[in-house]
Design goal:
Blueprint: H1 16-19, H2 25-54, H3 65-85, H4 90-113
Length: about 110
C-alpha cells in the first residue's frame, strides 16, 4: 500500500465492491466512505506539498533532510485530519457521486438470481 507522500494514492475504488461481495451494505458503504476520505487526504497532501515547494523560503540554517521528513509527515497527518473532518468536502462529493453505483452493483446480483 502506498503512503500519502508517494506518487500513487493508496486507493482501490475498483476493488471496493469485489472485496466486500459477502459483506453487508453498511460495510460496503463504510468502505466507500473510507476510500473517498483517503482520496481527499491524498489530494490535500499533494496540494500542501505543491504549496510548500512553490514558496521556498530561506531560513537561518537552510533546509535539512530531517526538516524535509518532519514536514512531509506533518503534511500527511494534517491532510488525514482535514479529510476526516470533511474540511474541503471532496470526500462527501465523491461519495455522493459513487454511492448510486454501489447501490446498482448491490442490486445487480439479486436481479440476476431472480
Amino acid at each position: 500500500m502506498y503512503g500519502l507522500n508517494s506518487d500513487r494514492p493508496a486507493l482501490a475504488l475498483h476493488n471496493t465492491r469485489a472485496a466486500s461481495a459477502g459483506a453487508s451494505d453498511a460495510a460496503s458503504e463504510q468502505k466507500l466512505r473510507d476510500v473517498c476520505e483517503q482520496f481527499e487526504a491524498f489530494l490535500t497532501a499533494q496540494m500542501l506539498k505543491t504549496m510548500r515547494t512553490s514558496g521556498e523560503a530561506e531560513g537561518f540554517t537552510g533546509k535539512s533532510t530531517a526538516e524535509d521528513v518532519f514536514t512531509a509527515q506533518h503534511d500527511a497527518e494534517l491532510s488525514r485530519q482535514l479529510a476526516r473532518r470533511g474540511a474541503m468536502g471532496i470526500a462527501q462529493l465523491l461519495y455522493n457521486e459513487l454511492k448510486p453505483q454501489l447501490d446498482t452493483q448491490a442490486q445487480s446480483p439479486t436481479d440476476k438470481a431472480a
